[in-house]
Amino acid sequence: VDAAVATMLVASIMDYGMFCIGAEVPFMIYDAKKKEVKTLSGLGGAPLNKDSIRWYYEHAIPEHGGIKAVPVPGAVGLFFDSLSVYGTMDFATVVAPALRVLDGGGKDWYDELAATFRKLVEAERARKGSRVQNLQRARARFYTGDIAEELVAYYKKTGGFLTKADLAAHRTLVEEPVMVEYRGYEVYKCGTWTQGPYLCQTLQMLEGFDLRKMGHLSADYIHVLVEALKLGLADRDYYYGDPRFVSVPMKQLLSQPYGDLRRGLIDMEKASLEVRPGNPVAMRALADEPGKYRPGPGGTTTCVVADKWGNFVSATPSGNRPYNICATLGVAHGNRLRSLNTTPGHPNRIEAGKRPRITLTPTLVLKDGSPLMAISVAGGDLQDQTTLNCLLNVIEFGMSPKEAVSCARFSTRHHENSFIPNLKREISGLGQVTLQDTIPVEVRSNLADRGHRVGIAGGAIAYPVMLLQDRATGLLHVAGDPRAGRHAAVIQPAGE
User: Which contiguous run of DSSP H or E holds residue 206?
Assistant: First the structure.
C-alpha cells in the first residue's frame, strides 16, 4: 500500500489528464497477514443538498463536464485511509517522490499542488501521536480544515454545489468484494458501485464452453465471448448502482443457476442485436421487458503492486476531463457525476450523496486461497472487456503477462455509454464488435457472416497492466501493453 499510494500520487502529476488528485480511485487489496481481500472505495458522491439534486432533474447533469459535474474528491481520502489501515509509512515518506517531481517544475499548477501537499505534511507533523493519528490529522485538514474551506470557496465562486458538509461527510468505505470461481481460480471484483461484477457474471456463462478447444482468437472464441459480454453488460445497465441506495440482487446475479440460464441465450451461429437483461430474482433468462437503458470520453490510469510479504494491490485511478482546477491549491477535479443519470427508476440515477456507478474496475485473482494475479485497465466501458481478454489469455492459454497484455484484443459497444447522463439510455453500438487489425481477415468475415457489425482498430484497445506470481519460484512477472504506454518497475526502498 505504501508503494501503491506513492505511485498514484506521482500519477496524479505524470499521468495528469488520465488521473488527478481531486478525482477517484477504486482500490483492492489482498492482505497477506489476514489472508483476505477487501475493496476500498476512493469515490465521492453527489452533493447532499436535495435542492442541488433537484437542479439536475430540472436542468440535466452537464454532459460535457463542468463544476456542477464534480463529486466529492475521493482519492485523497483513499490515500490516507489505506495508509492508516494497511500501510507502514507516513504521508511525508510516500509523498516525497511526488514532491520531487513538482519541485522540478513543469505545469503552472505544480507549485500550488506542492504547497498543498506540504500543508498535509505539516498537519501530520503538527503534534506527537501514533502514525495513524498523524495520518488522520492530515486527512482532516483536507476535508474539514483550511484546505476544505479554500475548496468550498472555489466551488461557490465557480457555480458548484459541493459544500463543507459534503467534504466533511466523505468516508472511504471498506467493503467486501464480489467473487466467482472460474476453473479453480477465484476472481475478485469491487461491488456494484463499479461495473466489476458483470465480469464475474460473464465468467459464469463462459465456464460452460470449451474455450481452449475453440482456439485463441478464432471466430468461435471471439463470438462466444462477445455474446456473453453483451448479456453481462445488459444486466450491468439494468441493475447496477450504489448498493447503499439500490437493492441489487447480487447473490442471484452471481449464482451458477442464473449463469446457466443466461448461457442458454447464446446462439453460436448468430450475433444478437437485442439488449437482453435477465431476471435473476425470478430465475428467468430474460427480464419481463427488454433493456431500454445507452464508451465515451474519459481519463484513467493503472496501478498494480505486489511486495515480498505477499500483499497484492490492484487500483484504477481516474479523473474524467475536462478538469476543474482550484488554482490556489493546484487541486484538479474530474466530473464523475456524468456517470449518473436522471432517468426515473434507473438504479444509477442521481440522488443526494450517491456514488456514481463507475467503469473503474480493478481485479484480483487468487488460486487455492493465495494471490496469483492483479489486473488494472484504463479504457472506460472497455475495461472489463479487456480484463476478460487478458485473464483468459493466462487461464485458458497459459500466456505470460507480457504475452497476455500485448496480443490482439477485441471489444463490443453493445451497451449503455457510461459517460452520457441523458434520460434516453439507448445503445449506440448495437451489435458492434471492434477487432485489432492483426486478427485475420477470414475471422473478420466469419464474424460478419454471423451478424456482427465488425470494425477494425489499429492501435491498442484499452490500456492493461497485469501482475502474476510464479508459484514455483515466487518470482513476480509484470507487464503493461507498450502500445498503450503502460510499463512496470521494481522499487527497492533505501537501505534494503
Answer: helix 197-206
278-288 pLDDT per residue, tens: 999 999 999 98
> In the predicted model, what is the mean pLDDT of residues 94-108?
96
Element (H, E) at 381: none
Do 382 and 411 form a contact (C-beta atoms < 8 A)? yes
Residue with cell 463499479: 194
Phi/psi for 224 (5° steps) reads -70, -35
d(CA 94, CA 12): 13
Question: In terms of DSSP H, where are the helices of 50-188?
Answer: 50-59, 75-86, 91-103, 110-124, 131-143, 146-158, 164-169
Q: Grid coordinates representing 152?
A: 468550498
The contacts of residue 285 (CB under 8 Å, 6+ apart) are: 261, 262, 264, 265, 278, 279
Across residues 359-387, what is the average pLDDT? 96
Under DSSP, is residue 349 helix (H, G, I), strand (E, B) or coil? strand
The Cα–Cα gap between 355 and 243 comes to: 9
Q: Mean per-residue pLDDT for 90-105?
A: 97
Strand blocks (E) in 168-307: 173-175, 178-182, 185-189, 303-306
Instruction: Please report where in the chains the cell 466523505 appears, as a residue.
Output: 170
pLDDT at residue number 419:
86
**Strand locations in 273-369, DSSP E?**
303-306, 312-315, 324-326, 331-333, 363-367
pTM to 2 decimals?
A: 0.95
CA 387 to chain centre: 11
